[in-house]
Specification:
The chain is an alpha/beta fold and about 450 residues long. The chain has 2 domains: about 190 residues, NAD(P)-binding Rossmann-like Domain (Rossmann fold); about 190 residues, Dihydrodipicolinate Reductase, domain 2 (2-Layer Sandwich). It is about 35% helix and about 20% strand. The chain has 14 helices and 15 strands. It has a 9-stranded mixed sheet. The protein is globular, with a radius of gyration of 21 Å.
Length: about 450
């Protein structure tokens, strides 16, 4: 990872208003003269994919499925097998006219991203999120437009790096879209617009959830180095994933920030390794429950867990002085009621575009026209920091303030990235990894 950017101590509320003013609808930005870094004027848009796993391949498919003249010309991944599968899947679906990645533009290893970025006009950054800060910095340094997946960092030094790079992207007028797709989903846009218009009054409480049975495990293979094992099982190591409160639950926490038009000023909560306790689950918790406190006293209750056989729930609810709201991305629904239970608005989810596709449609429309419309990185960095604030609270068992979280100096990234290098967290003789113990762990 690159050197840490300067520390930033900002008021979450003031900062949110600043960010919202910058990105509102994208329309405001489109009035700023485009820098000329890349004005396509109908020509071929060359893209590079950095991170060729399933989500990276999905993002590539969505980019190539837009109506614009797009060609993937370079691919990079730490692992050759993932790159080959992604390439072959894309070639089978889109053909050589869209997939022009000869052997010399297939880059494998930890440094391949630099070469892939250099070959393209637009980059898709879809590696495990621990790499996002340095990859984003390199893309903007090379004057490229960016689509990158959430979350955008796994520790506070990474957040500060992304915030600094986001400012540079805005200065250069480079479009940046980040994959919190609810921001591009009609049910959310229409429902939250009505909340912003005051239909539910002042939002005074809320509940956000990502409860599921958990994700994959890839057993250790004979001969793997520790670095390769952790990279293959990136979800279970905080330097790569950030724990599922960050990797998945950031979606719902971002919605809370959107509805509140603010970021939390503090958090406290509880979490543990309760069911997923074996060595296959690395260091992360399997449950987190957090109270996020906002400057006006609002409490948003956050809950996420990985427990098989329990209730799955991924949605958001909010209560206001005039009514209440419910949002669900999976069925594309948004509802508003008044305080007497009368239905005021119902988005039924029918006939609406896939928000994953919409992200790319809108990004590439702007690039094709030579417009500057999207500056998602700052907002998503602060929603990612909100999720880290929650993790710091559950790991430590203490109340953690926004400024403490933002300015933490704990850097999770390895000192060296190489297959024979060692990550900072290592297993004991029984293959078990150390994990946070509330009341004892220093999290910030």
């Amino acid at each position: 990872m690159s050197a840490n950017k300067k520390d930033v101590a900002l008021s979450p509320r003031r900062d949110f208003l600043k960010t919202s003013a910058i990105i509102a609808g994208g329309a405001m930005l489109s009035n700023i003269p485009f820098s000329g870094v890349y004005a396509n004027e109908g020509g071929t848009i060359k893209i590079a994919l950095v991170g060729c796993g399933s989500r990276g391949t999905g993002a590539l498919f969505q980019a190539l499925s837009t109506k614009y003249n797009i060609k993937v010309v370079a691919m990079a991944d730490a692992f050759r097998d993932r790159l080959d599968k992604s390439y072959n899947d894309a070639l089978a679906k889109f053909g050589k006219d869209k997939v022009d990645v000869p052997e010399e533009r297939k880059f494998v290893g930890f440094d391949g991203y630099k070469h892939a970025i250099a070959a393209a006009d637009v980059v898709l950054l879809v590696t495990p999120p621990g790499f996002r800060p340095v990859h984003f910095e390199e893309a903007i340094k090379q004057n490229k437009h960016v689509f990158m997946e959430k979350p955008v960092a796994t520790d506070s030094p990474g957040i500060r790096s992304v915030l600094a790079t986001a400012e540079e992207a805005k200065r250069k007028k480079l479009n940046v879209v980040v994959g919190l797709q609810r921001r591009y989903q009609n049910a959310y846009l229409e429902t939250i617009k009505r909340i912003e218009d005051g239909v539910a009054g002042d939002i005074v409480s809320g509940q956000v959830y990502w409860n599921s049975g958990g994700v994959w495990v890839k057993p250790r293979v004979a001969g793997q180095t520790e670095m390769e094992y952790q990279m293959r099982n990136w979800y279970y190591f905080n330097w790569l994933c950030g724990d599922h409160i960050t990797e998945q639950h950031v979606h719902n926490i971002d919605v809370a920030n959107w509805v509140k038009n603010a970021y939390p000023v503090s958090a406290q909560g509880t979490g543990s390794r309760f069911l997923r306790t074996g060595k296959d689950y690395g260091e992360i918790f399997d449950n987190h429950t957090v109270e996020f406190i906002y400057a006006d006293g609002t409490v948003i209750q956050s809950q996420c867990r990985h427990h098989e056989g329990t209730l799955n729930r991924v949605d958001e609810s909010f209560q206001g002085t005039k009514g209440r709201a419910y949002l669900n991305a999976n069925n594309n629904s948004g509802k508003l009621w008044d305080t007497k239970g009368n239905l005021l608005f119902n988005h039924d989810g029918k006939g609406n575009p896939n928000p994953y596709q919409t992200e790319h449609d809108e990004l590439f429309a702007a690039i094709d026209k030579g417009e500057y419309k999207f500056a998602d990185a700052e907002r998503v960095a602060k929603s990612t920091l909100s999720s880290l604030l929650g993790r710091y609270a559950t790991y430590s068992g203490k109340e953690v303030k926004w400024e403490e979280a933002l300015n933490s100096q704990i850097n999770l990234m390895p000192e060296k990235l190489a297959w024979d290098a060692l990550p900072k967290i290592l297993p004991d003789a029984n293959g078990m990894y150390p994990f946070a113990i509330p009341g004892k762990t220093k999290a910030v």
